[in-house]
């Protein structure tokens, strides 16, 4: 018996690299991720070019004492006549460098300890887990203050290394929990059964599925590092001769800028800190939406019935679409409507 033949339509394969680029740009489809990334890139550019863009020397004194914002001094001056706008521009480099270096160091340690302790079994995995537990219960900021106070020199790089070496435990615990869930998956078991080496299974089977968690851990560590750096400078632990936003707030507080009505002395640095924290938070929210499809579009979407009827999904509402196979509604059968969820 001959089988009926059908016309085969050749399908052209996608261009190489097109899907990869599309997946790479999918993260930037949400407004949170786009806004946060744009602000972060602006801060990075400011950290690189800030000292050259500053109209004055940040430490240079002048006769313009405690002057408010003007065309000559955009953010006003200090009690010594120093230009605050120049101090904000120069201080951006220290904050960004400390945040990025500490985030990279803490993330690398968290990945090494967390993924290794989650994948390995026996004394090695339990020992690494115990080490992360010890660092997890140690108060990070007091430990950072003690370490930086006994060091002979506290530069931005030193503070970044200290923050990174003391703030990796939380990320390691999260990665360990995720690795414990992944190591029993079928594809990991299949790779192990084919004789793949441990480092190759971890690097090519486990780590790609932890990318979003690692990125979120990095962003959280950068936020903590920036706040820690500003806190150390504000309380006078780090060197007050190197300008950053915490140093500006330190001098404003020590000279009682609020009591003198010099609001321009601390408001620009505070707004710069708040904007940077907001940008990092938006990037973190964008990562959450990229990982969790339920968060994309705030629960929005459009449902389409067989007859072409559409209903837009909204949070708090349950759309009800008519069944085209049923007869038209009679007088005793009401037309389906959108039901509001009162819970």
UniProtKB/TrEMBL annotation:
UniProt xrefs under InterPro entries = BP-dependent_transpt_permease, MetI-like, MetI-like_sf, OppC_N
Q: Which CDD domains match?
A: TM_PBP2 (cd06261)
Q: ABC transmembrane type-1 domain: which residues?
A: 96-284
Note the topology in the membrane: Multi-pass membrane protein
Any one GO CC term of the record: plasma membrane
Q: What family does the database annotate? A: Belongs to the binding-protein-dependent transport system permease family.
Protein name as catalogued = Peptide ABC transporter permease
- Natural source organism: Actinokineospora bangkokensis
